[in-house]
Amino acid sequence: MKIYKKSLAEMKKVVADYTSQTIDLKIEQAVSEIIANVAKNGDEAVRNYERQFDNVNLADFSIPEFQLDQAWESIDDDLRAALKLAKQNIISFHKREIENSFVDVSKPGILRGEKITPLASVGLYVPGGTAAYPSTILMCALPAKLAGVERIVMVTPPQADGINPAVLAAAKLAGVDEVYQIGGAQAIAALAYGTASIAPVDKIMGPGNIFVATAKKQVFGKVAIDMVAGPSEIGILADDSADADEVAADLLSQAEHDKRARPMLITDSERLAEAVAKSVTQQLTTLPRTEIAIAAVNERGFIAVMDNVNDMFALMNEVAPEHLEVQLASPIQYLGLIKNAGSVFLGRYASEPLGDYVAGPNHVLPTGGTARFASPLGVYDFVKRTQFIQFDRANLAADVPAITKLARTEGLEAHARAVEARFKGGE
Amino acid sequence: MKIYKKSLAEMKKVVADYTSQTIDLKIEQAVSEIIANVAKNGDEAVRNYERQFDNVNLADFSIPEFQLDQAWESIDDDLRAALKLAKQNIISFHKREIENSFVDVSKPGILRGEKITPLASVGLYVPGGTAAYPSTILMCALPAKLAGVERIVMVTPPQADGINPAVLAAAKLAGVDEVYQIGGAQAIAALAYGTASIAPVDKIMGPGNIFVATAKKQVFGKVAIDMVAGPSEIGILADDSADADEVAADLLSQAEHDKRARPMLITDSERLAEAVAKSVTQQLTTLPRTEIAIAAVNERGFIAVMDNVNDMFALMNEVAPEHLEVQLASPIQYLGLIKNAGSVFLGRYASEPLGDYVAGPNHVLPTGGTARFASPLGVYDFVKRTQFIQFDRANLAADVPAITKLARTEGLEAHARAVEARFKGGE
């Protein structure tokens, strides 16, 4: 892993290179054509793309309920227990995110409020092959359930040897209502626009390749989307007291996800920097996904040695990592210094994979610097708000001068006349 | 206005035509080139586009603070008072939306929580000419202030006779920190990517033409955006007791916004339907923006006569209007039937323009059917959440079997090893 010893200003330039984005017009156009075709031709278009891209001929996209039951029974006891533990903790954490409608009646004759309503339906994209993660199904579906969503739809690309039973078992445990074996941009288009066999949803979530991500971005507006997810990231803030092997192991836990994953260590200890770099090199050799992890470590990973703790946090806020570990003494005292991060892991025993699976907080997190403005997936992602007001005659009358003044200043005469219409003839 | 008397099923097909969307590849491509150019060439690219599109040669984009002060002094007393009233009520309503961080310490040795942090900076697009609304500046900037945003930037296209003083006065009153006279897709690109003279922001909000809307959609991911806003809509649910002239006046208050605005009445009274249609025709003739309103009424407006109140609400939920008036007796009893709407106006005296200006709830609302999943602009749009966990050794140890089982099921060996690293040598 490359070790930098530069000033904060210089390091900010280094990490800025890591967060730049580019627009790929060819992919945008290809995806746009797929979406237009599915919006127009429905099931037939989806079927053709599945033949073309996934090499399958599907009469029916649906996976029936009994196959989910069979999958749940087929997995081993340890996996069932682990999924159940994850479910329990995801629910106990996300329950705290449930929000209330409010009403303000502080002024007699005026009622103002905001009503919270669950989305009617959401769609969950689950990638195929080795990237099909049962844990992600729980992370996406359970907060939707807590929000009160009544229809949860899952799509996942067809597989030569059938859909992974662990994926179907997780869908069963999470209470997914409908499962379809379709994938790619055509699946996103089907969820957004609906087809004869798949009713449209109000929001689409879940990770996917560049075609899925681009399709989600393009249907945004027609439906809601969770986020445009990028490669995994882990940023670790550690001082000389941290254990180099543990830090290295945590960096590698994200490096193994994707060649473009970003493992990052920011420390004030040169000794730790060198020890972690050495340990990463050693541990890398024995990993099953070593090729992926090596690419991530060499091409996207870095270790930065900073002068002091404040600079460490300032640089990490610039990065805005998806996962942030704070391996410093009394880590909670630093929570106020963290401005931009998806999920924070405090102290030696909050190893990142704990949060990926069973701690309860979500593992669908903002990536690519978007933690500057975006949040983890949560119950709040599955509700919408509706404002309401009721005024009596006297309170409207009192506001007529201000309303008509503003309306006429903005050149909107019909706005002014609408409120004046209530007081014609002094009634 | 066209009056329909059809079944609910048939009417759902009619309103579906009103909510379809199309992708315009030419505009997408033109905007994509502008964004790429501004991202690469910064101020120089923005300056060239301003020359090309707005016919001005700008040495400096910035409007200095003293011009905002002058504008505030230059507007008349009634306008100042109206803006101040709007500000006061916007603040008193949106204060209720402020959310708290939470922490869960219900299990000894485990700490889990979610921290709420304001966005560092936001950008507000204000259209030029007659569509430059001072009220919208208050609606956008004040919730951001309440959230704790420290840098609010406004952009607005340069005008031959200078920026509207009411716009600059509203910016002053709302506490906008920086104002630049640039517009179009190039302004959105400058806010998203930053230039030498304009630092980038974390989120972009505010209405604009198709180029602005497309640019916002394309920079989504690099920054957050509020929504892709469409033409104004008003849906009115009224029974035979409603006043036809008042209903007609409220329909026209939205029709005057845009030729593509959608005024809609859903009623169970044929008498009211005909009386409203007649009153709309009469009132139309005397409106200053009559040409715009006529187009909206004829091309996009409709009146639907339904069999009963339940069908009225079912159809309106299908439409998911930006503004929804309930002109029925005891309107608040129907709040539970409203699933999809941006802002709801209950009863005769909650005329829509009341909400546009001074009632306090926001007037930046979901359009085009997006109220199915989107919310009014609020304080929650200007914060992000960061999860955090801390576990002690015993609690991590208890979860190791479940974590390693799930990790290895998902083929992520490095995830399993990271947690196991904490327990090497039984320490």
How is the topology of this model organized?
2 copies of one chain form a homodimer.
Chain A: E1 3-4, H1 8-19, H2 25-54, H3 65-74, H4 77-94, E2 102-104, E3 110-118, E4 121-125, H5 134-147, E5 151-155, H6 165-174, E6 178-180, H7 184-193, E7 203-205, H8 210-219, E8 224-225, E9 233-238, H9 244-255, E10 262-267, H10 270-284, H11 290-300, E11 302-305, H12 309-319, E12 323-327, E13 343-346, H13 352-357, E14 383-391, H14 393-409, H15 413-420
Parallel strand pairs in A: 1-11, 4-5, 4-7, 5-6, 7-8, 9-10, 9-12, 10-11, 12-13
Antiparallel strand pairs in A: 2-3, 3-14
Helix pairs in contact in A: 1-12, 2-7, 2-8, 3-6, 4-5, 4-6, 5-6, 7-8, 9-10, 14-15
Can you walk me through this structure?
The structure is a homodimer of 427-residue chains. Chain A is an alpha/beta fold. Chain A has 3 domains: 25-225, 3-Layer(aba) Sandwich (Rossmann fold); 230-371, Rossmann fold, CATH 3.40.50.1980; 393-426, no CATH class. In chain A, 45% of the residues lie in helices and 15% in strands. The first copy, chain A, has helices at residues 8-19, 25-54, 65-74, 77-94, 134-147, 165-174, 184-193, 210-219, 244-255, 270-284, 290-300, 309-319, 352-357, 393-409, 413-420, and strands at residues 3-4, 102-104, 110-118, 121-125, 151-155, 178-180, 203-205, 224-225, 233-238, 262-267, 302-305, 323-327, 343-346, 383-391. A 6-stranded parallel β-sheet of chain A has the order 1-11-10-9-12-13, sandwiched between helices. Chain A has a 5-stranded parallel β-sheet with strand order 6-5-4-7-8, with helices on both faces. In chain A, strands 2-3-14 form a 3-stranded antiparallel β-sheet. The N and C termini of chain A lie far apart (80 Å). Chains A and B meet through α2, α4, β3, α9 and β13 of A and α2, α4, β3, α9 and β13 of B. β13 of chain A pairs parallel with β14 (383-391) of chain B, so a sheet runs across the interface.
